[in-house]
């Protein structure tokens, strides 16, 4: 499925990666925006300031991109602006963070160590891999490993700025001592965070900055610190509660039910400061209850006889759901219309629930208690708004301690790395119809032409094809042409994909050669039955498609996907080709249309292992005499042989059908030649032994073939001294590899802690009492609080006949 599209994308991945890198660097080198560049004098002045300052010391680093490359793609040639890909991404995130932190009056600076010599930091090794926090003098520094995006940078810096206002408490004892300190003084906003530096942590810190004069704040990353708090389950990674210490001796916790985003947390805290009780009277019956809030409404119907009982026990519920519900008391003996008809003959008191933006009121069933009923309604109504549901696919797998190491897996996968730039970015896919289990059969039946892409959103290759497919749909829509393109997300609609037998993505298979004429197209560098021309194409000659040789060719096709096209001829067709070209059967042949010295090369399949054949194919694809490019240099270098380079003016007037399309630049040639030889504008012949760093420059006339041969022999026999010795260096991985032993130890520790805590919580599940009314309320002759069926004006009444227990208070273990 979509094999050709995938292959085409994979073959062009180098171009895409260059484009992605160019875009990244364009952002990194643009206007620094809210990041202020520090001079030496300005840096000295910071020592006299008491405000928090953030400084990054940027050193002169080089990605290996030459000036002319940057100029050709419209970028600055400021050499010190570049580091490796990690630093390039960091510059971009640092600039974004400066804009956010400017709203909190926290300035972010950058020191260009190339022009501003602050030796204390500019001369310090690896100082450019840290962000420094100052308040007069240096407070501390953060490694870039912990400052990987805007959320991490902003949350960490705000945490330092508000360390006194938002302390990190890591035990229940610390939390209780903190509560004692603020009893009778202030309510505490307390949060459990799986980790510091996340999006949820940033949201809390932004809210804390704005509400620090109205509430007291604290956080913890230890689950035991919030043991016994309502609502935190094993599937949650965050939790937020209002501890009502100002008016309660026990600092009763009220759970926050919304998403961990600043807007909704702010609304919750504002609602906590509003009186959440209204007594309905004939005068205010038409008024909007609790204007400006996002309260879920709880209607309490009572009469004169039950008034004291209702008022006493409602206080417990109001504290438990502070900031979330607004309670409307309705005395049925005083307010006859319109609620009198609603209640009919139901026993009093009774309770009803109406969620935000709902036109429906639900009454409590007889088998439930008020506290349990309200919590059940909140869970059902705001389930999609709960913290555990607010995360994207990329960061929701909380059970995996390796989640923060995904970058290791991307560093050698160019497609995964390219597609990672699109994660968490809004995508306008309105031009591509997304089919579901309901619309797929309708569209396939009613439309004359329908082209459907079945894809997985988390698979890099699949995501890449989806972006290309979407781009094609955009073009059709812009041109106002008929658009037959649609898609099915196989993660969301597994049943649709299974019914269409789409259960895996096809792996590349050898291209079948069915005739001698098709073989002749292969020799000319063309893919049969298409107009596509390639630099090289391999063909396996096998006796039949079920032989061991055929299976070997199939494996090679898989290994070489995205690198070269592999084809296969079998039976009579293969024998005819063998006889015509004098190539033995069971051979793998490579045809190179752009190699005038060696257009054909072959080897016996049975003489080599699979790995040996793949290596052989990669090496033999390179023409004998070819332009040296960044793409083929690694393959040439892998031979561990001397490289003879002829520096010359770019060729003109060549036949494009026989010449590989390569990146040519006179400036590149001049810079490399100057580095090797010291010369600039004349043709030159050089032999380089990169494994030893030796450069040999031929000094005689290039037309004397005999002298050139003698020169080469002298190099081979070590009878000539190198003209220049290149400096040695290491090309290390961009980030460290996995430490599997450490990962296994961490995983074992994590699983044990999780089992112990879950077992502890399950053992105590029966002790959790959700209904505090049941504990202290005496039995009355007023009957149970019941549900009703009548309608309020403008409302539809629904009944609830079954109860559902609230999930047990089982804590979520942090990583």
Key words describing this protein structure:
815 residues; disordered N terminus; alpha/beta; single chain; 5-stranded mixed β-sheet; 6-stranded mixed β-sheet; disordered C terminus
First-residue to last-residue Cα separation: 39 Å
The residue ranges in which pLDDT falls below 50 over 5 or more consecutive positions are: 1-32, 61-83, 383-405, 652-665, 764-815
Biggest β-sheet description? 6 strands, mixed
Helix content: 25-40%
> Which overall shape is indicated by the principal axes computed on the Cα atoms?
extended
How are the strands of the biggest sheet laid out side by side? 10-12-11-13-14-27
Mean pLDDT: 75
Query: Structural class from helices and strands?
Result: alpha/beta
Please compute the radius of gyration using only Cα atoms.
Answer: 36 Å
């Amino acid at each position: 499925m979509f094999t050709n599209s995938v292959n085409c994308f994979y073959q062009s991945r180098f171009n895409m990666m260059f484009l992605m890198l160019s875009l990244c660097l364009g952002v990194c080198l643009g206007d620094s925006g809210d990041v202020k560049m520090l001079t030496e004098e300005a840096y000295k002045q910071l020592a006299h300031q008491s405000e928090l300052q953030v400084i990054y010391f940027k050193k002169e680093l080089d990605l290996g991109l030459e000036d002319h490359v940057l100029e050709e793609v419209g970028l600055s040639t400021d050499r010190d602006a570049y580091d490796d890909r990690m630093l390039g991404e960091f510059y971009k995130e640092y600039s974004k963070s400066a804009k956010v932190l400017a709203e909190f009056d926290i300035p972010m600076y950058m020191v260009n160590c190339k022009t501003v010599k602050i030796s204390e930091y500019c001369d310090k090794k690896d100082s450019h891999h840290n962000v420094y926090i100052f308040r007069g003098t240096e407070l501390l520094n953060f490694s870039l490993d912990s400052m990987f995006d805007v959320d991490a940078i902003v949350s960490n810096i705000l945490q330092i700025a508000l360390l006194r206002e938002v302390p990190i408490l890591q035990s229940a004892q610390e939390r209780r001592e903190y509560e004692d300190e603020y009893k009778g003084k202030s309510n505490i906003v307390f949060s459990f965070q799986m980790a510091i530096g996340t999006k949820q942590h940033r949201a809390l810190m932004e809210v804390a900055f704005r509400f620090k004069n109205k509430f007291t704040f604290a956080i913890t990353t230890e689950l035991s610190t919030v043991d016994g708090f309502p609502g935190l389950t094993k599937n949650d990674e965050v939790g937020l509660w209002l501890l009502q210490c100002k008016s309660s001796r026990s600092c009763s916790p009220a759970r926050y039910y919304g998403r961990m985003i600043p807007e909704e947390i702010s609304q919750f805290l504002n609602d906590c400061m509003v009186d959440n009780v209204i007594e309905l009277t004939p005068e205010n019956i038409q008024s909007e209850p609790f204007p400006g809030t996002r309260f879920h409404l709880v209607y309490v119907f009572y009469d004169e006889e039950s008034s004291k009982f209702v008022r006493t026990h409602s206080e417990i519920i109001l504290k438990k759901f502070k900031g979330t519900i607004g309670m409307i008391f309705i005395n049925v003996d005083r307010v006859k219309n319109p609620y009198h008809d609603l209640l009919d003959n139901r026993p009093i008191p009774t309770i009803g629930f109406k969620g935000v933006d709902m036109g429906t009121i639900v009454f409590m069933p007889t088998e439930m208690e008020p506290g349990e009923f309200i919590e059940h309604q909140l869970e059902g109504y705001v389930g999609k708004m709960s913290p555990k549901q607010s995360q994207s696919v990329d960061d929701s797998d909380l059970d995996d301690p390796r989640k923060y190491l995904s970058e290791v897996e991307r560093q050698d996968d160019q497609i995964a790395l390219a597609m990672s730039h699109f994660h968490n970015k809004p995508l306008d896919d309105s031009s591509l119809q997304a089919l579901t289990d309901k619309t797929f059969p309708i569209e396939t039946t009613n439309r004359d032409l329908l082209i459907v892409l079945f894809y997985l959103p988390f698979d890099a290759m699949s995501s890449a094809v989806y972006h290309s497919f979407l781009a094609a749909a955009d073009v059709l829509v812009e041109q106002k042409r008929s658009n037959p393109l649609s898609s099915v997300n196989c993660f969301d609609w597994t049943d649709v994909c299974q019914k269409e037998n789409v259960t895996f993505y096809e792996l590349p298979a050898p291209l079948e050669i069915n005739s001698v004429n098709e073989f002749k197209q292969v020799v000319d560098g063309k893919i049969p039955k298409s107009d596509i021309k390639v630099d090289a194409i391999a063909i396996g000659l096998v006796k039949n498609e079920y032989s061991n040789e055929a299976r070997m060719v199939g494996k090679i096709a898989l290994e070489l996907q995205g690198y070269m096209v592999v084809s296969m001829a079998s039976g009579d067709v293969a024998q005819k080709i063998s006889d015509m070209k004098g190539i033995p059967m069971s051979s793998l042949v490579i045809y190179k249309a752009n190699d005038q010295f060696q257009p054909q090369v072959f080897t016996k399949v049975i003489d080599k292992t699979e790995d040996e054949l793949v290596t052989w194919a990669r090496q033999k694809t390179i023409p004998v005499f070819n332009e040296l490019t960044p793409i083929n240099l690694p393959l040439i270098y892998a031979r561990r042989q001397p490289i003879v380079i002829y520096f010359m003016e770019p060729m003109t007037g060549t036949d494009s059908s026989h010449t590989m399309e390569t990146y040519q630049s006179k400036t590149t040639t001049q810079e490399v030649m100057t580095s090797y030889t010291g010369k600039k504008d004349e043709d030159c012949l050089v032999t380089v032994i990169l494994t030893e760093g030796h450069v040999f420059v031929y000094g005689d006339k290039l037309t004397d073939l005999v002298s050139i041969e003698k020169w080469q022999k002298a190099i081979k026999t070590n009878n000539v001294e190198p003209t220049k010795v290149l400096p040695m260096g290491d090309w290390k991985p961009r980030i460290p590899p996995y430490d599997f032993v450490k990962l296994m130890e961490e995983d074992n520790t994590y699983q044990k802690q999780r089992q112990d805590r879950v077992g502890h919580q399950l053992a105590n599940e029966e002790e959790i009492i959700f209904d505090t009314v049941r504990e202290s309320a005496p039995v009355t002759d007023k009957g149970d609080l019941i549900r009703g069926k009548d309608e309020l004006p403008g409302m539809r009444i629904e009944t609830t006949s079954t109860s559902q227990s609230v999930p047990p208070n089982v804590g979520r273990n942090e990583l």
